[in-house]
């Protein structure tokens, strides 16, 4: 009964967010104050909330995806339903706070609450070691980045003498102060959106429930970084150094993450690396410093929310039915095409989601990704080095994206023609290799509460591409389509030959995690042990010695309390005589 009540509250709150976006659509942009406090004699901290086109867009994205996740979770989540629904609702509310706030500290509140909720939701299956480890890793990395984010707020607030977002950039400020402040904010953005070098937490957050992954990757948490830069876009444009750093980070991240996705052998991990790469494409659009680039980045954020949320919900169905979304397990069902035949709705919806992600013409991802390419092309034509770097990087990423999308689609849903080679490619690492062929008759499609959100997001993954008006240049569309085909062909060739497409370097994800382990985790643990040892053996020794001395002293004084009056009088006489002698010596 309690769980049902919480589910009603969760779905209702998400629909309320959607209703708020609908009511605010077309409203004149403005700011609403809700009181405040005075900090010292100079700063007025006010609770202000902002309404504009960006607010409406993000509220719609957050509300729709959150509602889909809440409904989907009714058929998916069975353990600790009340706490799960409460945390998802709080997670959504925190993102709404970030979206509507017009004060840096109010935004910080939502920013940090999201981090706490993500830790608890990723570790929802706390009895699993990988879930606990992933939750802790996400918490530590994002909190480390948020230290820079907090100092960035201080620098910009003090520099402009206001923490109101609407007023930032309106007054005079020294250029180096603006650069330092925006760079510090960028540290928090990099951590929250899992960009290089703080990208390792997001793929390891996959042990959490699939609906949670859909919410984090599509509408909250990682999308908050893109939103923040879009909100403070005029401020970042004035800091050219920061935009250049953002462009470099974005281009490196999109190529790095796409190459990791090409070798991953678990559906959710492929999608996680894909999210890192797609977020980098959005950041690259923002780094161009033009209105077209900002518009393209937000357009891609909108379409990405639809098809990435859809793909994670589809992955949830696979986990729900098969028990694992690893290729080595799913392959055992795909030998007879069972997943495609027994889960037709999942097959169709996931196919559409992957087509949108790969940039197949006619789907939403095609239009939004091409809009970023077009914005980069216009910037490159003006002689911008950043424009050329972004243009080449997005083109290569589009080709790599098509590769891992086609590879995953074929390996999950279709029987490999060269089955012997395919088995040999994975069998060595397959813990189920000696088991009997799984009974595909036990597979069945998800319930209607799981399929309904998937169908809604499927429609969005197709239709959202046409909401912005199709005005792409056919030359750019042709080039990106050719790049997608060039990426898809090798994936098909490898699949048809049953070859293992995992280069060692890609499979190990460039050894970043082991490197971080050696460079940071091991020294920190050593320092922690040293600190604990110093506390116990040095500082603790002094404390224990002091306590022991007090105990010994009290024991000695206790022995003097014999209760014998003659002993007391003798001691008093001896004391008086000693004092008299001492006084005489001093007087002489």
From TrEMBL:
GO terms for cellular component: endomembrane system; membrane. Keywords: Membrane, Transmembrane, Transmembrane helix. It holds the Pfam family Proton_antipo_M. It is a multi-pass membrane protein. GO terms for biological process: ATP synthesis coupled electron transport; electron transport coupled proton transport. This is NADH-quinone oxidoreductase subunit L. PANTHER family: NADH-UBIQUINONE OXIDOREDUCTASE CHAIN 5 (PTHR42829). The chain crosses the membrane at residues 53-74, 81-100, 106-126, 138-161, 173-191, 212-233, 245-265, 270-289, 309-330, 342-365, 385-406, 448-466, 472-495, 568-587. Residues 101-381 form the NADH:quinone oxidoreductase/Mrp antiporter transmembrane domain. GO terms for molecular function: NADH dehydrogenase (ubiquinone) activity; NADH dehydrogenase activity. It is found in: Endomembrane system; Membrane. Residues 41-79 form the NADH-Ubiquinone oxidoreductase (complex I) chain 5 N-terminal domain. It comes from Kribbella jejuensis. The lineage of its organism: Bacteria, Bacillati, Actinomycetota, Actinomycetes, Propionibacteriales. The keyword Translocase does not apply.
């Amino acid at each position: 009964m309690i769980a049902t009540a919480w589910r009603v509250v969760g779905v209702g709150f998400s629909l309320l967010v959607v209703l708020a976006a609908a009511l605010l659509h077309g409203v004149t942009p403005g700011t609403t104050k809700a009181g405040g406090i005075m900090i010292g004699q100079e700063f007025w901290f006010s609770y202000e909330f902002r309404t504009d086109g960006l607010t409406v867009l993000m509220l719609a994205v957050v509300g729709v995806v959150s509602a889909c996740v809440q409904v989907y979770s009714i058929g998916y989540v069975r353990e600790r339903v009340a706490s799960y629904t409460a945390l998802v609702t709080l997670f959504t509310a925190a993102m709404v706070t970030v979206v509507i706030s017009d004060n840096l500290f109010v935004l910080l509140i939502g920013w940090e609450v999201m981090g706490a909720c993500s830790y608890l939701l990723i570790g929802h299956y706390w009895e699993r070691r990988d879930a606990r480890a992933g939750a802790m890793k996400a918490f530590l990395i994002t909190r480390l980045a948020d230290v820079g984010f907090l100092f960035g707020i201080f620098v910009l607030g003090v520099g402009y003498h206001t923490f109101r977002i609407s007023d930032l950039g309106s007054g005079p400020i020294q250029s180096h102060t603006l650069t330092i402040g925006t760079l510090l904010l960028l540290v928090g953005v990099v951590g929250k959106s899992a960009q290089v070098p703080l990208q390792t937490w997001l793929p390891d957050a996959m042990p959490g429930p699939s609906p949670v992954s859909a919410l984090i990757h599509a509408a909250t948490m990682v999308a908050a970084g893109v939103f923040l830069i879009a909100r403070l876009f005029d401020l970042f444009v004035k800091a050219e150094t920061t935009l250049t750093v953002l462009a470099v980070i974005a281009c490196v991240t999109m190529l790095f993450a796409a190459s990791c996705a090409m070798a991953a052998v678990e559906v959710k991990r492929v999608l996680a690396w894909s999210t890192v790469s797609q977020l980098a494409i959005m950041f690259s659009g923002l780094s161009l410093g033009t209105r077209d680039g900002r518009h393209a980045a937000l357009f891609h954020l909108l379409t990405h929310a639809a098809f990435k949320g859809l793909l994670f919900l589809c992955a949830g169905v696979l986990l729900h039915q098969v028990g694992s979304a690893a290729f080595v397990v799913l392959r055992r069902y795909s030998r007879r095409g069972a997943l495609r035949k027994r889960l037709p709705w999942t097959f169709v919806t996931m196919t559409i989601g992957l087509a949108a992600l790969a940039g197949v013409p006619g789907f939403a991802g095609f239009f939004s990704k091409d809009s970023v390419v077009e914005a980069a092309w216009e910037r490159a034509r003006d002689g911008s080095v950043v424009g050329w770097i972004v243009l080449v990087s997005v083109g290569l990423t589009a080709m790599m994206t098509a590769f891992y999308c086609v590879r995953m689609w074929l390996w999950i849903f279709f029987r490999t023609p060269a089955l012997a080679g395919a088995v040999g490619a994975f069998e060595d690492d397959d813990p189920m290799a000696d088991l009997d062929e799984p009974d595909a008759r036990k597979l069945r499609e998800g319930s209607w509460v799981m399929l309904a959100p998937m169908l809604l997001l499927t429609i969005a993954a197709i239709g959202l591409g046409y909401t912005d008006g199709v005005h792409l240049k056919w030359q750019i569309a042709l080039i990106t389509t050719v790049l997608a085909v060039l990426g898809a062909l090798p994936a098909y060739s490898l699949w048809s030959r049953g070859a293992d497409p995992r280069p060692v370097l890609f499979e190990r994800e460039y050894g970043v995690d082991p490197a971080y382990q050696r460079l940071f985790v091991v020294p920190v643990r050593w320092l922690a042990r040293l600190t604990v040892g110093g506390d116990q053996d040095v500082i603790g020794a002094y404390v224990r010695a002091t306590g022991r001395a007090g105990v010994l002293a009290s024991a000695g004084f206790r022995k003097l309390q014999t209760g014998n009056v003659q002993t007391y009088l003798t001691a008093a006489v001896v004391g008086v005589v000693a004092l008299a002698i001492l006084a005489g010596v001093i007087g002489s």
